[in-house]
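Allow me, if you will, to draw on your knowledge of protein folds for a short while. A protein sequence and the structure tokens that stand for its backbone fold form the material at issue. I would ask you to consider whether the tokens describe a fold that such a sequence might reasonably adopt. Thank you for your consideration; the sequence and its tokens are set out here:
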Amino acid sequence: MSDTQRVLIIDDEPDIRELLEITLMRMGIESQVAIDVHSAIAAIKQHEVDLILTDMRLPDGNGLDVVRYVAEFKPDTPIAVITAHGNMDLAIESLKSGAFDFVSKPVDIHKLRNLINQALKVKQAVKDANTAAAKKPSTETLSLGNSAPMQALSKKIQKLAVSQAPVFIQGESGTGKELAARQIHSLGPRSGGAFVPVNCGAIPSELMESEFFGHKKGSFTGATEDKLGFFQAANGGTLFLDEVADLPLTMQVKLLRAIQEKKVRPIGSQTEIDVDVRLLSATHKNLEAMVDAGEFRQDLFYRINVISLRIPALRDRHEDIPLLCDAILKRIADNYELPAAKLETRAKKALELYGFPGNVRELENILERAFAMCEDDVITEDDLNLKDGSSQTVKPLNSTSIGERPEGVSLEDYLMDIERNVVEQALEETRWNRTAAAKKLGITFRALRYRLKKLGLD
């Protein structure tokens, strides 16, 4: 590719062509023109371009014909379509067919320039990501695996990364839906922008509008200062809505409008704010069934589910378990600056036979517990504790009073505080003799070292 970037414009309207050519010229970008499907495909065959802009209605066919041709024969070249105002069905169909993005008539120059800038980053972003991946393989557990499902997933993620189409990520709990979303973001042209993950099920309904769209100071009791919402925080980047099925119907309406208009209005503001975000969403629930039951809006489902991505369950890729185990155990050892543990043969076999209802997240939890409990850096089948579905029986601590969790304190932090208090108590009672403290707590010396590292007490 030459240093000068080149864009192919496909449109039979002289006024639109002139507007696009002037815009590109002012951006220092060369342009060439085609007026119909036939001349466009001839130009695509003959010349390498960095971006294609095509009108939807052409004299001898449809812009979708060009989109499909490019998706098949020039998949690394982004193509954006220009649609008539309000014709969202065709715009969504173009995204499903492989278009990078769309812009509606009358063309907003500011939005057009943003689209062009984003699209021109695609080839370089993907090239850089692939080069980096070749030099330094990913250590993220979702990426690890030579199974057919993971090979197919990796290829689809790379393909989706160059698009701006909304992606709906499906999969059971623990399969790595957020990690897939992060990879789509990091491999695409928005990688320099923010990735904003949102757990829709963790936001109180009365705070949802403020959290998503922001608010102005004094707009309601407790609004002591201006606040940016998730959309503004993700502007220029990616907004990931996890557990989107948990959104109440009233919020679904507001979210749909923000997606359609690409504008948000903070609570208490008289004006709307333009936002430019890539929307990714996920849930472990059956959203189609919820639509049929009237629990999720069909028009919102239609909008977020332009392209779907399914993450395979761990039981469907058992051959990846040894590689995952090695990576997880190495990461745990590095995190706690302890020697790496190895799985004995029987432990490996037990893991390969286990069903993993909690998927990769459950595997990580099993190995972290086993890492803490094992002796001599070897994890046995007993250390895995898989007999009852990998759940451990927790004996009550008679000497410890466990009160109600304070409001505003997460469960994880609350349990960490309890664990810290129990460990500190044992250390104080043994005059900080770690061997004696481990015996008093009924755990191995290695397990105590692990907990001291985790709790910041070493």
